[in-house]
Amino acid sequence: MNDRKAAPDRMEKIVSLCKRRGFIFQSSEIYGGINGFWDYGPLGAELKRNVKELWWKSMTKMRDDVVGLEASIIMHPAIWKASGHVETFADPMSTCKSCKKLIRDDQWWPMMCEQPWVQSLAGLVEPGTDSFQTGDLLKWARGKGKQLAPNLALVRNPEVTISWLAQEVEKGNRPKDARDFYLFLATEQFGATGFITPCPHCGGELTEPRLFNLMLRTNYGPIATDDNLAYLRPETAQAIFVQFKNIVDSSRVKVPFGVGQIGKAFRNEINPRNFTFRSREFEQMELEFFIKPDEVVEKQTGSVAKLAGEGHPGEPQPNWGWELWHRYWVEERMKWYESIGLPRETLEMFSQPKSELAHYAKACVDILFKFPFGTQELEGIAARGNFDLTQHQTHSGKSLEYFDETVKEKYIPHVIEPSAGVDRLLLALICHAYDEEEVTDDKGNKETRVVMRFHPRVAPITVGVFPLLKNKPELVSKAKEVRDLLRPQMNVFYDDAGAIGRRYRRQDEAGTPFGVTIDFDTIGENGPELAETVTLRHRDSMQQERVAISELPRLLLSRLV
Ligand code: ATP
Hints:
By secondary structure, the protein is of the alpha+beta class. Helix content is 35%, strand content 23%.
């Protein structure tokens, strides 16, 4: 799966299965699509619901110390000034002077690596060594280069660029690494321009980076003016901060406590890419967990517990400061990912170095998933101090202090924020579930079985119910009885069309973990001992067992809780 060559191939298969089986469609496809927007089809919608429901259950319903919120998408624009999004929620980006495409600076190199022209050049040279042949470069520039990167200096003016490169190598100024090598190939006259960064798409010259605000704008009210400008929220978290006081006053929660929210967020991403991974409209599942400032913990308990060792720190304790709470949430979140079918070895934890943290943040750990296109972020868990509440208190002029009865003191709570993306998680689940295996059918023919190995908890359909034959009324009515027995408790798909083997395969592709077949034994045609029993087929092993209908609900439910 990590094989670089296999990765694009695997991703292509996944994207095509998603469309074919109705997991994910391009938004507005019949109008040519709209970049960065996606729709979830019948199976995708179920998968998404399951994931959100499992998050909500584990974060709120199964805990005494977390409540929920469902806020509006459009909020007072002053919120985004206070939060810093108007000023700083911007990524540096460059425009290609030739093809006019926009490139986010931090994505330049990953995009370069995916380009056919970069891949074909990489085969010719070993950057950082003397081993490239000017002859090869010239040939490339006149052949493949012309088709793949027509605006690259090396292609437009091969002799000049190559002789400049050769001179520099002579002087000992060799490209330091692969990235550097492409800057050399994009630069014709170093003295006049300095190094040029090539456009990943056409090889042309990229402008200096400029900041670009990622918030999508809209207007509320009948006439669009600057006075009624608003933003589609770029994250769900801010609503939790601005409703902090209402939540404390109405629900009698006591610090430490959390507020969870699931909802849509919008970012005008410059380069939406990697299928749904970076979209312009997506969903987040965010928790703001409010804790006492360390000074208050110390006052109350004598000392703040120190972080020791690795792993989960266990049940929360009154002497926990931000460090232990942060570790606790990182580990809780890892446990949750495992519980829905992403094993630890598919995940990585990345601690952001202090130099990259926002000025107010104390720590941030990202949970990454090994996607076929690279190891990338699913969720960030940040210790944000009391920055957000303080900002909103200052900007709104309303007190957001909390009165703590245990120490008879007012303070602004600090916060730990586990912030996850629903769509990225869905993509991770889909990528992890996708599998192909060679199987032999009844007639001894080999075929490839595509199977989505979803954990039963997230699988869009839990169980397929199949009457062996659709023209046998006793089988059909019994199958419908089984369907109605299971339906109130799980997602059931009833299918009576086609050969049973084909019906199984369709459910394999949908990722349905169980299949129940109602046959002649079930209706007692082969003796009373098998009556009221069915064949239960397990998706992963393809093993079948005989199970009493009355046992089915208990058996299947035991795999879901
Ligand atoms: P990135 O660096 O990838 O742009 P980020 O660090 O800005 O992401 P956060 O602001 O921490 O992301 O948002 C929290 C979560 O929301 C991310 O971990 C991710 O799962 C999800 N998310 C953010 N941007 C997008 C997007 N454009 N498309 C899909 N999910 C997103």
